[in-house]
Amino acid sequence: MAGDLVLGIDAGHTVTKAVLFDSAGRQVARGVGTVPLDTSRPRWVERDMGDVWRTTHRAVRTCLAAAGVDGRAVAAVGLAGHGDGLYAVDEQGRPVRAAIVAMDTRAEPVLAEWRDTAVWDRALSLSGTVPFAASPAALLAWLERHEPTVLERARWLLSCKDWLRWHLTGVVATDPTDASASFTDMCRGGYSQELLDLFGLGRLVDKLPPVRACDAVCGTVTREAAALTGLAAGTPVVTGAHDVDAAALGIGATEVGELCLIAGTFSINQVVWDRPVTDLRWQCRRFLRPGQWMLMSTSPASVANLGWFLRIMDSPAGPRGDVYSAIGQEVGAHLEGPSEVLFHPFVYGSPHQRPACGGFLGLRGWHGRGHLLRALLEGVVLNHRWHVDVLCSHLPITGPARLTGGAARSVVWSQMFADALRRPVLVTDVEESAARGAALLAAGAVGPIGDGTGPFADAQVVRRHEPAPERVAVLEQAYQLYREAEEALWPVWARLDSASASE
Fold it and tell me: For the segment 273-286, what is each residue's pLDDT rounded down to a tens digit?
């Protein structure tokens, strides 16, 4: 039947997924593509904007082919993408430079100037967050100093999903979740000229895209985009959302006070709240629904560490889908006893304002790859623990945590989260949470699809991990050592960071 499916597109830092869902929210098919990151310069993490679009339209075509349908079967398209970073385009929508993604740290010197000044406190009180190296405020300030012609040529300063929607529809826009990355008034909503002026970026206000509701129809698929994607021209496309908000929606973690963990490239630890609450250690941003805020404590220090490790070591045999199972078996054989090796998962960054590096501690000649993998998985979990403790220090968060992202695919890793957080962890049947959330926004925008017999069903919990007392004690001890090692290593990390910066 025509128009009985919805398409969700999730464009992450390295992987883009196009996923079809039926009217009950069940996954029908997907297409996946990867976009290489350019890390050839220290601290710079970029990618070609043309590659981002090509990967997306190929993933959509692959998804349609896998489902055995043509574009007429798709009622609407939803978009989600990584937040922060920068996708700058000219009047015709052409890139004016490579995209900068949220793992980039070139703007750290800008932050160093802003910290301990009125900028820091005012940014927090007005926007709900202080800048980090790859937030739009920091990146635009860096470009103002080092690449001013880029800003002169730029007509629009977009986020990832907004770049893709422009290609699909020709419409320039963004949504409240991405708009609140740097320049939105936390309480009143909308862009704040005061915030732009605070960062010395006041002249750029007209380059910020208009803000539309996440579930608003924001254009239709053009003939050009239809030819590339296989979608039907005229198919509605909604504004979409930051992928972390979409993921929460996709797995059903949208109730006020419910803890949601996304263990992907970034360590995302978030809770929806019914009022803005600020702290230097988390971000308070607008949520999908008016009158609600997403409180997120984040760092680029989660499953990306595993990807790094597997690039420099031999990956387990078998298809990529079996990697988590193979790693679980390998780590499971080395789970007895206390944690002999510690890992700080800061290969791409940390949650701390002071410089920090990734690294193993406690290695001995009898330790093998399995010991290192156990340490890596535990280190990632302990970093999530730090974020959760931060949120719980100010907020009455009780009950289980919902877990999604790569780590949720591993039973062993998911259990580690329950043991380290000392609370139950729930894993749902949703494999592609951000894509499902984007599709749900699209479905809501166009009303009942297909025969209209069923809106998206709730995500079903397929695993519940209860804390295991013996492992709780092991990981509590490991966490205390992990934190003590951090304190001891700050001076060393600072010196290493200075050496890297001078290269």
Answer: 999 999 999 999 99
